[in-house]
Each structure stands twice: as structure tokens, then as C-alpha cells.
Amino acid sequence: MEKITAFWVVRSATGRCQRYRGLMLSILILAYGQLLAADVVTELNRFLCATHTFSAEFEQVTLGEDGRSGRPMRGTFLLSKPGKFRWDYFQPYQQQIVANGKKVWFYDADLEQVTIKPLGNAIGSTPALLLTGQVDLDRDFLVDAQGGNGGVRWVRLVPRLQDSSFRYIKLELNNDRLRGMELADNFGQVTRITFYNSRINIPIEASIFEFVAPDGTDIFENL
Q1: Are 127 and 183 in contact (CB under 8 A)?
Q2: The dihedral of CA 200, 98, 62, 128: what is its sign?
Q3: pLDDT tens-place string over residues 158-189
Q4: Burial class (CB in 10 A: 0-12, 13-18, 19+), 115
Q5: What architecture is domain 39-221?
Q6: Do the beta carbons of residue 125 and residue 106 sit within 8 Å?
Q7: Is the Cβ–Cβ distance between 179 and 193 less than 8 Å?
Q8: pLDDT under 70 in the chain at which residues?
Q9: Is-contact 38 31, C-beta < 8 A?
Q10: 213 by DSSP, 3-state: which?
Q11: 3-state class of 1 per DSSP?
Q12: Cβ-contact 171, 44 below 8 angstroms
């Protein structure tokens, strides 16, 4: 009887030790995850605060619900705080998205039409608004780290509003540099943008962020 009792005590102690180690490991993993998230969010805020202008070439690919990708789109991107940015798509067809801090023009050269929206209503159409200083990240989004590899890390922004036109936006950061963006909409499409040859805080003329519609263009304005 004494041997059985002693064995039960040892086994119970061993079980408690295993549960204790498991609990401590879970706490350490959780703490590490929180530190990593805080570090990535800090890096994002540092990039946003330190970047006044940004220019880069880009490649954009859209994946459908079936995972198939459309034709790659290429062009240039310019940003100037507060509220100004410009996407120029050159391949495979010409499009422009231009914002002057108050409104955004969406121009399609092939269709010969431009749609104009107030700046605050356009974030679902162009995630560049996140970078312009016009959006309160803490107020409008849930922000969390998504891990990374080799110094490259992702941070995901999930809109707090239930009726948002997209499910999340991811930003790829590397040493306080923006490397890429990913936008998932509510129709199952994912758009991925990769930036290269980027430059930060170079002078950019304000006139670049004004759009003048070519003659014969149909204009649709959403106020």
C-alpha cells in the first residue's frame, strides 16, 4: 500500500510539473507574441511619422477566389503628406489615381472616363490613404503583427467598421521601409503590391497631385 501511495504522489507531482511547464510555455509564447506585435506596430508608426514623401515603382497582382492571378500591372507611386498621392499604371493599360488632399480622381484612359470621390470615402478603392496621415490607425483599425522572415515583417490592419469595403490591409516593412501592401476585399479578391526602387523624403512638386481630365473625358463625381 505504501508503494502504491508513493507512486501516486510521484505521478501527481510529475503531472503538476508538466502542467506548470506547459502553462509557463504558453505564457512565454503569449508574451513574445505581444512584444512582437508591439515592435511591428512601433516600426509602422515610426515609418508613418518619418515619411513625408515617398516614391517608388511597383508591380500589382490580383488573385481571384480560385487563387488564380490576373495580368501583372506596373507603374509608379508618389506620396506626399498630408493627403496627396498618385498611382500611374502604365502596363498592361493606362490608369491613374490622383489625390490632392481633398478629393481623388480615378481615371481610365481606355474608357475615357474619370470618377471623382471625396478623399475620406476612397480608402476602399485605394489603400494609399493609410500612408497619407489622413487616417487614425488606432481609431479605425485593429492592428496586429503577422510575423516575417529575414528582417521583413508584416502588420495587418482590420477595419473596425462592419460595413467596410475590405476585410484587411497588410503592410510589409523592412528596416523602416515600405516593401509591399496586400488588400483583401469582401468579394474574395486579394491585391498584392510590391514596391521597388523606393525613395523617401525627396522633393515632389504639389502640381503632380492635381488631375486635369483630357478633352472628351466623361466625368462622374460622387459627392
Answers
A1: yes
A2: positive
A3: 888 776 778 888 888 887 788 999 988 888 88
A4: middle
A5: Clam (2.50)
A6: yes
A7: no
A8: 1-41, 121-127, 134, 147-151, 163, 223
A9: no
A10: coil
A11: coil
A12: yes
